[in-house]
Amino acid sequence: MESKLINVGFGNFVVLDRIVTIVNPGSAPMKRLKEEAKDAKRLVDATMGRRTRSVIITDSNHVILSAIQSETIAQRFGADVLSKEKVKDKEG
Questions:
Q1: What pLDDT does 91 receive?
Q2: Which end of the chain is more exposed for a tag (fewer CB within 10 A), N or C?
Q3: 49-78 burial by CB neighbour count: b if 16+ within 10 A, else e?
Q4: Residue 16: which of 26, 6, 29 has the closest Cα?
Q5: Is residue 69's pLDDT more than 90?
Q6: Angle 17-19-22 from CA coordinates, rounded to 5°
Q7: What is the pLDDT of residue 42?
Q8: Whole-angstrom distance between the N-terminal and C-terminal Cα of the chain?
Q9: Where does the pLDDT of residue 79 fall: very low under 50, low under 70, confident under 90, or very high at 90 and above?
Q10: By C-alpha distance, which of 2, 25, 26, 28 is closest to 15?
Q11: Contacts with 48 (C-beta within 8 Å, 6 or more apart), sequence order
């Protein structure tokens, strides 16, 4: 099985199939989630000191902070999903 990676900024990558959701960090529930993940040592800060612009939640409950807009990551995510569908169409 081949694992696809998605760039979350500054040379940091996440396995595409492990992503559950990509959200904006501004709401109070996301701030609480970030603090809970930090306390549980499940927080990965991939912002390289920049402002957090998106929060990625994985199937293992890890919380990844990114300095890339959630819309940009979603476009990268969507582009990879579309390329997978094209490959399936060509094979099938």
A1: 65
A2: N
A3: eeebbbbbbbeeebbbbbbbebebbeebbe
A4: 6
A5: yes
A6: 145
A7: 98
A8: 18
A9: confident
A10: 2
A11: 9, 10, 67
